[in-house]
Amino acid sequence: LIVNTMDIHLLDQLTDIVSVCPLDSTTYMNNLMARLTKDAGRLSIPQLVFMIELISEYPPIKGTPCAVSLAFTANVRKDSLDSTNCEKVLLGLARMGHFTDDFFAIAEFLFTQRQGLRTYDALSELMTRLTKTIVQEPQMLELISKAIEMLAPVINEEEMLHLKKTLTQLGVTDRRIQQRIFGAARQRSAQQMMMRKNNRYDPADDL
After folding, report:
1. pTM of this structure
2. Alpha helical stretches, state H, the chain
3. How far is CA 25 from CA 35, 57, 97, 98, in A?
4. Which site among 113, 125, 159, 175 is 20 to 30 Å from 24 CA-CA?
5. Which pLDDT band, with edges at 50, 70 and 90, does 119 fall under?
């Protein structure tokens, strides 16, 4: 197949076309994964992000050397990812179920250098990709806690309750853990509200 020999920098365009064609793309995808396993490091940043997003929707990618290669490449080159692309990469790896050291390194970078997940929808999607096993990992609980705390000022009560329900369904039922996660979030939300109230302009101050 042409995917085995064509210029790696044209691969994203061809894959985009193949993904919308009403054809059996199994052979193409198998060859694409083999090529990316070998050459993921040669992709540009936009191509890398595109490939991770696209291939993350392909169920057979889970647990393959291709997933390992893409995650490793994204981790090595994470300094070149802006906040939007870093979030896309993290969610793409989550769709693959690829919760490895590379995933957590990218997550740490996202939260310390790129302002974390940007929306409730992004956090909600991440949590829907978790399993009862991975959510019990201390690193994952810390990640969820940090994400909820950072988004607390823009999450409404209904959304907060949905996140709590999702955690409970995943088996996180220890009240102490839930209190630690959501207590910090509520405290930060209250602090933000107080700051906005204190900074609110009052015309009477000019009198």
Report:
1. 0.84
2. 11-20, 26-39, 45-55, 65-76, 83-95, 101-113, 120-128, 138-151, 157-169, 175-199
3. 15, 13, 22, 23
4. 125
5. very high
